[in-house]
């Protein structure tokens, strides 16, 4: 099954994607992780990505599609995947349909206030990309690999507000696009991680015949 996971920054897409990956053995593709890795590679495309991401700007559709077209057609994703952070614009969604078939889309819906609170408490492991919330995890090092946790440079109030505005302007049309195709499921993400995952599992159980 090929699933798109949609939601504003800080809505919990990464956390839910990891839980789904473990429960259903579906590969998790995080475009954010892909591009964060690429921006530090000394390559022509990596340098292009760096120009945008180093200024907390969205990577242009043309560059995104160049990367994703190659990435999504790898053999390990033939049986399905959970796509997190892409498509981010209506144009990307339409272009994606030309290169691969998407079965379903899940929207994790939440407000700017909730997103802001979550993101400001977020810490990440620069080694294995594990994500923690300091409200629930009070250690300085990653539980999985022991690396010291850090805060993303763009996890601040100003950038959060800008990114949420970008989401409303650019990504909400993607939500409508999948809704019109009959592929959209909406989950209220202003709950605990466990409760949100419970809702996600209920949705996936209705699609179990597709697995």
Give the structural class. alpha/beta
Could you say which overall geometry the principal axes of the C-alpha atoms support?
A: globular
Look at the structure and give the CATH class. Answer: Alpha Beta
Rg value: 17 Å
Order of helices and strands: EHEHHHEHEHEEHEH
Stretches with pLDDT under 50, minimum 5 residues: none
**CATH topology category name:** Rossmann fold
How many individual β-strands? 7
Number of domains: 1
CATH level-4 homologous superfamily = P-loop containing nucleotide triphosphate hydrolases
Number of helices: 8
CATH architecture: 3-Layer(aba) Sandwich
Give the % helix. 40-55%
Q: Strands of the biggest beta sheet: in what spatial order?
A: 2-3-1-4-7
> What is the mean pLDDT?
88
What summary fits the major beta sheet?
5 strands, parallel
What portion of residues belong to β-strands? Answer: 5-15%
Cα(first) to Cα(last) distance is 6 Å
Account of the 3D structure:
The chain has 211 residues and is of the alpha/beta class. The protein has helices at residues 13-24, 31-38, 44-53, 61-72, 90-99, 112-120, 157-180, 193-206; strands at 2-6, 28-30, 81-84, 104-109, 122-124, 131-133, 184-188. The strands form two sheets. It has a five-stranded parallel β-sheet, sandwiched between helices. A two-stranded antiparallel sheet has the order 5-6. α1 (13-24) packs across α8, α2 crosses α3 and α6 (112-120) packs across α7 (157-180). The chain is globular, with a radius of gyration of 17 Å. It starts with a strand and ends in a 5-residue tail after the last helix. 27% of the residues are buried.
């Amino acid at each position: 099954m090929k699933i798109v996971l949609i939601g504003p920054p800080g809505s919990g897409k990464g956390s839910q994607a990891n839980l789904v990956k473990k429960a259903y053995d579906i590969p998790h593709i995080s475009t954010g992780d892909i591009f964060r890795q690429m921006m530090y590679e000394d390559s022509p495309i990596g340098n292009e990505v760096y120009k945008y991401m180093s200024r907390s700007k969205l990577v242009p559709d043309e560059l995104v599609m160049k990367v994703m077209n190659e990435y999504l057609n790898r053999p390990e994703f033939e049986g399905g995947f959970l796509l997190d952070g892409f498509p981010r614009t209506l144009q990307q969604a339409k272009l994606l349909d030309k290169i691969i078939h998407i079965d379903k889309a899940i929207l994790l819906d939440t407000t700017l206030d909730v997103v802001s609170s979550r993101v400001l408490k977020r810490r990440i492991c620069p080694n294995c990309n594990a994500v923690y919330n300091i409200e629930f995890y009070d250690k300085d090092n990653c539980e999985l690999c022991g690396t010291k946790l850090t805060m993303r440079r763009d996890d601040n109030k100003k950038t959060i507000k800008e990114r949420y505005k970008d989401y409303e302007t650019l990504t909400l049309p993607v939500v409508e696009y999948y809704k019109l195709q009959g592929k959209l499921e909406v989950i209220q993400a202003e709950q605990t991680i466990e409760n949100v995952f419970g809702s996600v599992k209920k949705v996936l159980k209705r699609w179990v015949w597709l697995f």
